[in-house]
Specification:
- There is one protein chain.
- The chain has 623 residues and is α/β, with parallel strands linked by helices.
- 44% of the residues lie in helices and 20% in strands.
- It contains 20 helices and 20 strands.
- It has helices at residues 43-50, 84-89, 94-107, 111-123, 129-139, 154-166, 184-196, 208-214, 233-266, 277-290, 351-358, 393-398, 414-420, 437-449, 467-479, 491-497, 517-535, 547-553, 557-585, 591-622; strands spanning 3-14, 17-28, 32-36, 58-63, 69-72, 172-176, 200-204, 217-222, 225-229, 313-322, 325-334, 340-345, 366-371, 377-380, 403-405, 411-413, 455-459, 483-487, 500-506, 509-513.
- A hairpin with a 2-residue loop joins strand 1 and strand 2 (17-28).
- The longest helix has 34 residues, at 233-266.
- InterPro entries: AAA+_ATPase, ABC_tran_C, ABC_tran_Xtn, ABC_transporter-like_ATP-bd, ABCF_ATPase, P-loop_NTPase, Val-tRNA_synth_C_sf.
């Protein structure tokens, strides 16, 4: 594979904090890589540098010549008066520029310009640009193409921005949190789209199923350095644990050896000038290694929750409509202590409305909401807390409480609580406006939990929180004594945290599904398959198809030979795949061999999937 991006000795600082130092890495054509790091450590900054938004303090970024790149930023901007379609055509990407120029030349009957632009239109496959744009917008649930951008919600703007980069079919695509503001159906569509695409990909996302399904390379940004893992997210977790264990062992060995070397350094200090210089240098290197932390700083949440009585909250025949749009119709439910519910449904199906009725922020049109006497909500809202950007991080916490109650009659000061949530002392006096999006969300989560709720409501908590923080939050929710209700498009999060689902099916219907998201998705696929088989027309053996239709569905000689070759090729690929899997599980490979074998396996699986899809296509045509 040809190299498409080279990064050499990239260094960048944010004020006095160094985000990364001398990063050197590259991506080859067809790589699908993800960047993982804690919030505030420089993920978006690195993407902005690669996307040309601003420059690094030092280092070199080199792209292969004639590469078309697409960049989805975390906060895309559009002209508010432009319509949805106009915003796509007024993009500065090469395809949009050529289409605009061609349409202008046609409108002005400029034959010379038309002749000059025709080869470029062919090269960029730009003839169906508008049709591709409409198809992708429809998949992302944007159907009103002449609506001004200024009238769209933040989530809709993000989806238009995603469509803008996808329709150009770039060689290299950079995506910063692409799954935010997408519902589950859209995420699965995007996942499938990127898996089948040949474009090279670098993205930041918290969606772990998405990472597992799409990516073949993981980069972890940690302690100003970049670590590469040639495999998907599951492989990364295994190898990351091995790396940390190995580092901890090295630190322990260095500490043991340091004691002996310290004795040697302390002996006859007046004669140190006669000591071997190489051994003195080695001593200081050893000391540096021994002083490294042997444990990663983890966020452990063990905050006290208020006592929850037997009666939690009961809903009696509640209904809610806005005009002709019915979101909730005659829904009743009695919550029990300790249950954990996920809420899923398409965007606009009423998820936030349901939560606002539950918490008393919104009255139902009919029915009754009956809360228990001891009920104390903690509501993490999708839009987030309205933090004052001019305030210091410490002030945000002390305005709520100077001391925070924990379990077992323990408490923490505001400063201790901030450190507990991975805000070191040097960040306590930082203004809120200087925080990253993820750090602001983590600060907001603190303000919700520190009030000791016994019924937690989390509306899209996974947006902007890093994966490492999400893992800890999931563990906390699993041992939380009170009730939990989660609205999320993160399938992994839903699977790990929830016991059952409220599915908002539309037209006011809410279905209580007894299982997690994977269970629900599997059942929906099975139902769709059965429905397809049931609705398929019964073939009449006496009725003959028209001759032209028979010819259309008949395989050509060339296609028959291709089908035969594919069957043999699939068998060979299956055998090679089994060999690679056996090698990976043998325990005899070195570190380098493991990386290479994992990469080979990923490529084999891609080839196998491509062959199987073509085989299915030809088989259906043959049948």
């Amino acid at each position: 594979m040809a190299n498409i991006l080279s990064v050499e000795n990239l260094t960048h600082n944010w004020g006095d904090i160094r985000l990364f130092n001398n990063l050197t890495f590259g991506l080859e054509e067809g790589d699908k890589a993800a960047l993982i790091a804690r919030n505030g450590t420089g993920k978006t900054t690195l993407l902005n540098i690669l996307g040309g938004k601003f420059s690094a303090d030092s280092g070199l970024v080199t792209w292969r010549k004639d590469i078309v790149t697409g960049y989805l930023s975390q906060n895309p901007e559009f002209e508010p008066e432009q319509t949805v379609l106009e915003s796509l055509f007024h993009s500065e990407n090469e395809t949009a520029v050529v289409v605009r120029s061609y349409e202008k030349a046609v409108a002005e009957n400029d034959d010379t310009a038309i002749q000059e632009l025709l080869p470029k239109m062919e090269q960029l496959n730009a003839w169906d640009y508008e049709e591709r744009a409409k198809q992708i917008l429809s998949q992302l649930k944007i159907d009103i193409f002449n609506q001004p951008m200024g009238q769209l919600s933040g989530g809709q703007v993000k989806r238009v921005a995603l469509a803008r980069v996808l329709i150009t079919n770039p060689d290299f695509l950079i995506l910063d949190e692409p799954t935010n503001h997408l519902d589950l159906d859209m995420i699965e569509w995007l996942e499938d789209y990127l898996k089948r695409s040949r474009m090279t990909l670098l993205m930041v996302t918290h969606d772990r199923y998405f990472l597992d399904s799409v990516c073949n390379t993981i980069y972890e940004l940690h302690d100003e350095s970049l670590y590469q893992y040639k495999g998907n997210y599951t492989y990364y977790l295994e190898k990351r644990a091995e790396r940390i264990s190995q580092k901890n062992q090295e630190v322990e060995r260095a500490k043991n050896l340091l004691r002996k070397e310290q004795d040697w350094m302390n002996r006859q200090p007046q004669a140190r000038g006669t000591k071997a210089k190489y051994r003195i240098d080695a001593f200081y290197d050893l000391k540096k290694t021994a002083e490294q932390s042997t444990e990663e700083q983890n966020l452990e949440i063990n905050i006290k929750s208020a006592r929850l009585g037997k009666k939690v909250i009961n809903l009696h025949h509640i209904s809610k409509s806005f005009g002709d749009l019915t979101l909730i119709k005659d829904f009743s439910y009695k919550f029990a202590r300790g249950e954990k519910v996920g809420i899923i449904g398409k965007n606009g199906s009423g998820k936030s409305t349901f939560l606002n009725i539950l918490t008393g922020k919104l009255e139902p049109d009919s029915g009754e909401v009956e809360p228990g006497e001891t009920l104390a909500f903690g509501y993490y809202r999708q839009e987030g807390l309205n933090l004052d950007n001019s305030k210091r991080v410490l002030d945000v916490i002390t305005e709520i409480a100077d001391h925070i109650q924990l379990g077992k009659d323990q408490s923490m000061s505001a400063s201790q609580f901030l450190r507990y949530f991975l805000f070191p002392n040097e960040m306590h006096n930082v203004l809120v406006e200087k925080l990253s999006g993820g750090e602001k969300k983590r600060l907001y989560l603190m303000t919700v939990l520190m009030k000791n709720p016994n019924f937690l409501i989390l509306d899209e908590p996974t947006n902007d929180l890093d994966i490492l923080t999400l893992n800890i939050l999931e563990d906390y929710l699993l041992q939380f004594d009170g009730c939990v209700m989660v609205v999320s498009h993160d399938r992994y999060f839903l699977d790990k945290v929830t016991d059952h689902l409220f599915v908002l099916e539309g037209n006011g219907r809410i279905k209580d599904f007894p299982g997690n998201y994977t269970d629900y998705h599997g059942q929906k696929k099975q139902e769709a398959k059965e429905q397809k088989n049931t609705s398929a027309p019964v073939k009449d053996p006496k009725k003959k198809k028209p001759a032209r239709q028979q010819d259309k569905n008949k395989l050509t000689y060339k296609e028959k030979k291709e089908l035969e070759n594919l069957e043999q090729q699939i068998e060979e690929l299956e055998n090679r795949k089994k060999e690679k899997e056996t090698q990976l599980n043998s325990g005899t490979l070195t570190g380098d061999e493991l990386l290479q074998t994992s990469a080979d396996l990923g490529q084999l699986m891609e080839e196998l999937e491509s062959c199987e899809m073509r085989w299915l296509e030809l088989s259906e045509k043959e049948g």
